[in-house]
Amino acid sequence: MPLPVASLHALLGRSPDDAGLRESLAALFGSAPQPDVKTYPDSTYHNYYALGVSLCFTGSPLALDSVDVFNAPAGPSGSASTKSTKPAYSPAPPLLLQFAETEVVLPPRKEGDEPFRYPRPEAFDVVPATKGRDIVRVLGEPSRKGSGGWVGVWLEWGRVGLKDEAGRVDVGLMLELSDPKGAEQLTEEQRKKGAGGVWDRAAGWAWGSIKVFRPADK
Hints:
By secondary structure, this protein is α+β, with helices and mostly antiparallel strands. The chain has helices at 19-29, 132-139, 188-193, 198-202, and strands spanning 3-4, 36-40, 43-48, 53-58, 63-70, 95-98, 103-106, 116-119, 123-126, 144-146, 154-164, 167-177, 207-213. 14% of the residues lie in helices and 34% in strands.
């Protein structure tokens, strides 16, 4: 069964020593083995490679700041993904986005225009083959995006309204796209654009990971 993204919201803010945290992980993912713990100056990661999920704790005392779920094998969180990086994450289960709002509102193209609106599905399944354009279509215009470096091509939505069993929850979402690199078949027009055409190309890339974090202030 798909994993409801809204259910990950309840994990945020918990400490790494919270016994209920592992119980919640086991309920969501089917098991909760001992994590591989990686500590950095500003964060601590609990990597569950077999589940395809990584938990990032920050602050003092440590509290769960974000949850990453992976579609394709990737290196440990907090480091570049390379051929020599082991172990790799197994793909997480398909994800389910159940939306609290029934339409997507895009900003006007120019001053004085009305915002553009179109219907949003009540629910959307993020499966292994889901492309970047499919996710952007249901989430709308990202609040931030970027490319380059070890993170690759990413898009971020500071606040997304989702539904769970208790009602509405707001989360932040960050989507990282999986660059097919040499396997990508480019058109002649894309070749001419080169690096500048990365956003046109990335629309057709599958998702690599989705980060769930506390929403930005309104």
